[in-house]
Amino acid sequence: MKTHLLASGFLYSLISCSALAQPANTATSDLAKKLTNPVASLISVPFQYNYDANIGLDKKGTSNSLVVQPVVPLKLNNNWNYIVRPVMTFESLNNVNGYSGTGAGPIVVETFFSPAASNGLIWGVGPVVSTPSLSGSNFGTSQTGVGLSAVGLVMKSPWTAGLLTYNTWSAGGSAVNGTANNLFYQPFISYVTPSAWTYSINTQSTFNWDARRAENPLNATVSKLVKIGEVPVSFQVGARYYLSSVPGGPSGWGGRASMTFIFPK
After folding, report:
1. Which residue segment(s) compose the domain that 48 sits in?
2. According to the 3-state scheme, what is the secondary structure of the chain?
3. Is residue 66 included in any domain, yes or no?
4. How many domains does the chain have?
């Protein structure tokens, strides 16, 4: 019930802000298109809520999580940018294998060296590091991971399609609660309308090389870019479905909602 009320309230806020915002124009639509590019020269701070169910060996657990993922582009020179994307997850678990509580999972810091100007294919590559879970075994691995991240995409208005991926290898720590030997892959496709509505589909999949199992949530979302005062804000709602899962992981349907603050450079 609480989840349904939260989703309803978020949708109401989205509709209200859209009604109060200034009329959409080409600049707003262009900004919405830039937001679909993970290595755009654009500072953004998203706050993303996820609801997942059927967690635990008995499938009786649920999870409410908040993912904070600021994107900070740093200009190295006229030819290159360095994009930093730290991903922090705060989670509330309910009856997951008998455990209920709140905590923080591993922090993943993705980085990309990306050309400032590109024709056709936009790309970036750089190191990635993941910390051990900040709140113990119930919220992820106790291992540190290091590796390589990469992104490639094509933007042909009104479409954006691409792949963001990284692989981390264990750099120490206990493997009792799972390892940091993971391949993450996120294929994505988005369609942006002239009125700054964005329709997106992606997966945010993780394959663990030791367990030889993959978790594949498929996300379908709709978002609207508006201005609150002078600050562009994107509101998003959507659903997710687990195409496959690891033992004890979430399965079936879930929900997603987010709010992203944008600071054009």
Report:
1. 2-252
2. CHHHHHHHHHHHHHHHHHHHCCCCCHHHHHHHHHHCCCCCCEEEEEEEEEEEEEECCCCCEEEEEEEECCEEEEECCCCEEEEEEEEEEEEEEEEECCEEEEEECCCEEEEEEEECCCCCEEEEEEEEEECCCCCCHHHCCCCCEEEEEEEEEEEECCEEEEEEEEEEEECCCCCCCCCCCEEEEEEEEEEECCCCEEEEEEECEEEECCCCEEEEEEEEEEEEEEEECCEEEEEEEEEEEEEECCCCCCCEEEEEEEEEEEEEC
3. yes
4. 1
* pLDDT tens digits, 179-233: 999 999 999 999 999 999 999 999 999 999 999 999 999 999 999 999 999 899 9
Provide the CATH number for the domain around residue 23: 2.40.160
Assigned token pair, 151: 């992104």
pTM (2 decimals)? 0.87
Say how many residues make up the chain.
Answer: 265
The angle formed by the CA atoms of residues 78, 84 and 89, to the nearest 5 degrees, is 165
Could you read off the pLDDT of 67-77 as tens digits, one per residue?
A: 999 999 999 99
pLDDT digit string (tens) for 35-94? 999 999 899 999 999 999 999 999 999 999 999 999 999 999 999 999 999 999 999 999
Torsion from C-alpha of 194, 203, 181, 246, nearest 10 degrees: 160
C-alpha–C-alpha distance, residues 142 and 132, integer Å: 4
Cis ω for the linkage preceding 127 (within 30 of 0): no
Q: Classify residue 120: in a domain, yes or no.
A: yes
Domain membership flag for residue 259: no
